[in-house]
Amino acid sequence: MHFLELFITALLPVLKLLLIIGVGSFLAMERFNILGKDARKNLNIMVFFVFTPSLVYSSLANTITFKSMLMLWYMPLNVLFTFIIGTALGWLLVKITKIPDKLQGLVLGCCSSGNLGFLPLVIVPAVCKESNRFFGAVDICHKNAMAYASLSAAIGTIFIWTYSYNLVRIYSCKSSNANKVEDSTVNPLSAPKSDPEDISKCSVGPLVVEGDKTQNNDPVHQLDIEFAKSDGNETVAEKRKIIEHLRTFAEKLNLKKVLSPSTIGTIIGLIIGVTPPFRKALIGDRAPLRVVQDSISMMGDAAIPIITLLVGGNLLKGLKGSCIRLRTLVGIIMVRNIALPILGVGIIKGAAHFSLIHHNPLYQFALLLQFVLPPAVAMSTITQLFGAGVGECSVIMLATYAFAAISLTLWSTFFMWLVK
């Protein structure tokens, strides 16, 4: 295919996305207020609990089998690479531009977590339709594209709500604690009292009272006693340190976020997809329980247009501006749209050279696309949960998504030429 044909093929899915985003911004304007603050809040709840889990579940159950899981083993590793490299580049950006403490978690999260959810679900299948059989027969290409994009969305959701969520939590708590220490140093009598609401934001596990450690029904305390009885040398202290670390990890781990509705939908979808009896009962024209699968698929089909409209409504807040520095915006754009894609090309070509991934052009295109996506929309929700950098996040989203309209088209054109 000539460059112009590749460019048009890559441009059309992005244009479709931009049109729906524009409609969302139009509906969210104060003059119309159809997609106002309350409406966006309610739709976000519906998307989080209903539409996205349905979409991820139905896509995985329909497309993922045990054989395909073995073939796609590299994708989770590829997503991990995007998070690790993005975090490293974000850390360099934080040090170079001297970003304030309260925004460091936001910047690291935006640099590390790409929109692995609905953007691949829109772009990759649309490329099959517009590519004039560049990736093979349209129906087979679309089925494979949904499998790649659904697995990408499922893995991305898990990483965002375990990794990026805790990044923002840790840095927002550090900033809050630093401000309290500074205030108490200036005037010790005016030091703020502990606010239960602030504590709940910073701590994702139950508070531990020191006196509780002496209770006889504490299993960790019982283990300490056993270790003390069995051995009195230095290994006792080491074992106690390990137990304390395990205790701290268990208390900090927020299973409600790890096991979010999308994660649960992912697990169920994978179980049904790779288990033949469940698959025969739910998937296919002759499946006895196909009405259940079809109903869930119908709810999942509503996820992409609703999420895209919400992106347009949320981006409108970025037009009001904030105190974020221009160099910070430029740095995030360079990380997500220049540095990450270049490194991603080297990683994917190296993996293909050493036969870690199969030489399927569509699969390689989906892997490459994961390195060039703008920040995840979930970052807006995460910043709202902790009240840290909400306005700044809106500006970052507006700037990065506006630039992504160009970068996604150009990089997608290059990626299709590269995997041809």
From TrEMBL:
Domain of life where this protein originates: Eukaryota
Protein's name according to its UniProt entry: Uncharacterized protein
Lineage: Eukaryota, Viridiplantae, Streptophyta, Embryophyta, Tracheophyta
Protein species of origin: Bauhinia variegata (Purple orchid tree)
